[in-house]
Protein: CRP-like cAMP-binding protein
Amino acid sequence: MESLISTIKQLISFSAEEETIIKNLFTELNLKPGEYLLRDGQVCKHVAFINKGLVRYFINNDGDERTMFFNKEGEFVCNYISFLPQVPSDKNIQALEATRLYVISYEKLQRFYREVAEGEKFGRVAIEQVFLSAIQQLDSLYTDPPEVRYQQFLNHYPDLTQRIPQYHIASYVGIKPQSLSRIRKRIFS
Structure:
């Protein structure tokens, strides 16, 4: 849990008593490769911090999966569009490898906001980071060619290329795996 506490400390300051409160609000959850933190149609019940492992955030469009994001160690993952209003999700969050998470429910997050002096600041700063990332991703999807999107993937996730199957990376970039192979050949030759 120390990596969770360290990450929160990068966003806000808190006392030793507040640290105990924070630790008691989060619970550990372990996912096996292929298991879901969230499935399309379910209400997102938790914000999760990835202590170890890797997940992908994707939509299923008539059997065609489109990967939107990857989250790895030291990052928070949640479908806020489902979590905040507590409505069914149209997204999936799936573990790509054995993943250890610390999760906090909607109700406990509200306690975090009330009981930790800078709790609401934490919520604001965390959601601002998610919002910026989502807007940058959306802008890139509409304005950048696939080769640029792949290069951005390499820049943003340099340590993940060996941990993520190529067909998921192709989906993230917005192309077929064969096209990704051609792009990789051009970049690395």
